[in-house]
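FAQ

Q: What does a record look like?
A: Structure on top, sequence underneath. For example:
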């Protein structure tokens, strides 16, 4: 690999380093199945500490871009390893399909905390309210789904409708603005008939079916951050999931 020269004199944060390395992989500058530069070389290139660099490398491993082999180095994984690896947002899915994601916020703010939501988010019994966002999600002008998200936020982490609309993606807002790093989620999917309100919001006919999906999203500390109920028009929305042998219990 050719000699690297640092991008600037300013020390870069690990999120910026993450983005630069990700781009090098995506554009093919760093080839799949090839070793990336050593930790020492990269720390000099990015003018950062090795601790900062390791955070960026670990984030890329979690997202299926890199893997390390003891005694040999860190290698670029092929694109298939990154496809639907761990956690994608609705915005990611629509962008991957070549569409334009959009949203209409129906409700946002703190709401009373029910016992069911408390259990899903593993919240203390003394907590009485939880931050709630309900949105209709679109591809262009076509409604695809309704998402109702309950978020385990600190009091200072509440955000406005304007902030969410400006960012576009809830997950991007959580990570980039609130520094809440997300790792993985567990989903349950079923099919059912839509309610009258769902039929109206999604512009469905009398015979249309919806996919009902619930998700618990975990942070990198493996703490529940979000419980979300998603309702999608079955005829308009689909997604892939990555299954490995380790996904099955014996």
């Amino acid at each position: 690999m050719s000699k690297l020269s640092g991008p600037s004199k300013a020390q870069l944060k690990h999120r910026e380093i993450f983005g630069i390395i990700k781009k090098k992989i995506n554009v093919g500058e760093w080839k799949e199945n090839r070793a990336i530069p050593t930790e020492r070389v990269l720390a000099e290139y990015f003018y950062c500490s090795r601790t900062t660099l390791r955070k960026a490398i670990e984030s890329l491993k979690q997202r299926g871009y890199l893997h390390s082999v003891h005694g040999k180095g860190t290698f670029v994984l092929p694109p298939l390893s990154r496809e639907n690896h761990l956690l994608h947002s609705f915005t990611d899915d629509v962008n991957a399909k070549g569409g334009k994601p959009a949203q209409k916020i129906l409700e946002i703010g703190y709401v009373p905390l029910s016992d069911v939501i408390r259990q899903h988010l593993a919240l203390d019994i003394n907590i009485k309210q939880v931050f709630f966002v309900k949105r209709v999600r679109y591809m262009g002008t076509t409604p695809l789904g309704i998402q109702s998200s309950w978020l385990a936020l600190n009091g200072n982490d509440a955000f406005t409708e304007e902030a969410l609309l400006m960012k576009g993606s809830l997950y991007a807002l959580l990570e980039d603005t609130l520094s809440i790093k997300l790792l993985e989620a567990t989903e349950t999917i079923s099919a059912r008939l839509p309610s009258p309100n769902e039929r109206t919001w999604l512009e469905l006919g009398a015979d249309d079916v919806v996919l009902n999906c619930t998700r618990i999203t975990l942070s990198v500390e493996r703490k529940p951050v979000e419980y979300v109920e998603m309702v999608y028009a079955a005829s308009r929305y689909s997604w892939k999931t990555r299954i490995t042998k380790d996904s099955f219990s014996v």
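Q: Is there anything notable about this one?
A: The chain has nine helices and eight strands.
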